[in-house]
Amino acid sequence: MTGPTSGYTYPFPMTSVATDIAVFHVTEKGGLQIALVRRNEGSDAFPGAWALPGGFFKPYEDDDITSCVLRELSEEAGLVPPFSAADRPHVELVGVYSAKGRDPRPERVISIAHLAVVTGDQVALAPVPDTDVSEARWFPFEALSGLELAFDHAQIIRDARRKLADSMSFARKGDESPDLLFAFLPEEFTLSQAQGVMQALKGEHVDKSNFRKYIEKFVTPTGATWAITTRPAAVYRRRSADPAQDDELFSPALARLRKLAEDQRIRNFELLLSGLTSAPDAAVRMLTRIVATYGRHRDYLLKVTKVPDLRIDDERTGRVLMTLKWQPRKEVFFCTALVKQDALKAVGLSGVKEWNTGPHETAFHLGYGEEDLDRLDEVLGRSSMTLLTQ
Fold it and tell me: How far is the C-alpha of 294 from the C-alpha of 374, rounded, in Å?
């Protein structure tokens, strides 16, 4: 029997097990940072040097090596106070480091290195007093080249950084959901935020169009928008494993419209959904019929712009025949069309006026009754005729 009070002596030298943790964070401006701790001047190995947080595995205290990782993060960096399962930081194995000369102390020390991810509300560093470190600090990743780190921590950091970059590949088809990317993001985020994190982790520019094609299959719009710039930005969250949970974000009418737009692969449609969360179901059903009618029509092509509005283009020429977007205050669709104002007098539209922005000639309001679908079809037909005469 062996244990804390056992007097049994092994006939071969004992080896200690430790963990070292590369803790990463991405700032709001997209900068990649890593947490380092300064070892006490009285330390028996690398006194006063900067190192990764970490320490020895305690066999009678730690349930497993992950428990050791979380304990060391708490003791040496102050990063993990008592937490719930939802607050638990993302932790992944980097590798096992066992070279003879990696630790100058007499005993052989094998490190099971990990990387950990913390988000915006967890970034304050505060080592616990009376531990073997005196300071904890975030360093921009590019600043590490000027530091001499303890042990083989420079190698561990290089390997952890490579793991981050390798995990961010989105060129392959059928990739699994990028867990590391979502670990760096808050629960709700914009696609621009997600792209910024992707760029920070890859360490290179990421093409916006390719990234959005990739990420759209792993996220779902919440229906909210944030005023990030002059235009509203749609807010997303990670797609749930259960599609029913995502549909709970929308009314049944909006959920059906969202599914129809996904089936027809209408890009950026979530921007339009964000403005419809307070719209009457009848208005949503009206838009659903528009998408169903014209989305697969041989003469038309549907797109959503960043305004956001729904564009109905001429399939052959790519010219914009008509646009519409929901106006919550007036509870109508605001539309513009290629056809001139005089040609719409007999259609029965409201709010008709001259429009000088872009290629269109006329602006008007459209309701969401049965007769409004007929009016829209009439406007499209006359806009198509206008295109033929130009």
Answer: 13
Domain boundaries, the chain: 15-167, 188-389
Q: For residue range 108-162, what is the model confidence (pLDDT) as tens digits?
A: 899 999 999 987 656 777 766 767 778 888 999 999 988 899 999 999 999 999 9
Is the omega angle on the peptide bond into residue 308 within 30 degrees of 0, that is, cis? yes
Mean predicted confidence (pLDDT) in 73-99: 77
Radius of gyration of the chain from Cα atoms?
29
Quick count: other Cβ atoms within 10 Å of Cβ 226? 15
CA 91 – CA 65 distance, rounded (Å): 11
Task: Give per-residue pLDDT as tens, 197-243.
Answer: 999 998 888 888 888 878 877 888 777 777 766 667 778 888 776 65
Residue 125 vs residues 33, 74, 95, 121: alpha-carbon distances, Å:
13, 9, 25, 11
Using DSSP's 3-state secondary structure scheme, residue 134 falls into strand
Helices 252-263 and 281-294 cross at an angle (nearest 10°) of 20
Of 156, 159, 139, 140, whose CA–CA distance to 54 is shortest?
156
Q: Two tokens at 12? A: 């071969």
Contacts of 292 by beta carbon, 8 Å cutoff, 6+ apart: 260
Q: How far apart are CA 161 and CA 141, in angstroms?
A: 9
The CATH code belonging to domain 15-167 is 3.90.79.10
Question: 64-68: which pairs have CB atoms within 8 A and are 24 or more residues apart?
Answer: 65/17, 65/19, 65/112, 66/91, 66/114, 68/19
Angle between helices 370-389 and 281-294 (to 10 degrees): 40
Task: Tell whether pTM > 0.70.
Answer: no
Task: Pull the structure tokens for residue 69.
Answer: 């990782």
Helix (H) or strand (E) holding 234: strand 233-238
What are the beta bridge partners of residue 302?
A: 312
Partners of 221 in beta bridges: 236
Conformational region of residue 78, where left means phi above 0, alpha means psi within -120 to 50, and beta covers everything else? left
Buried b (16+ CB within 10 A) or exposed e, 54-73: bbebeeeebeeeeebbbbbb
∠ Cα 350 375 293 (to 5°): 135
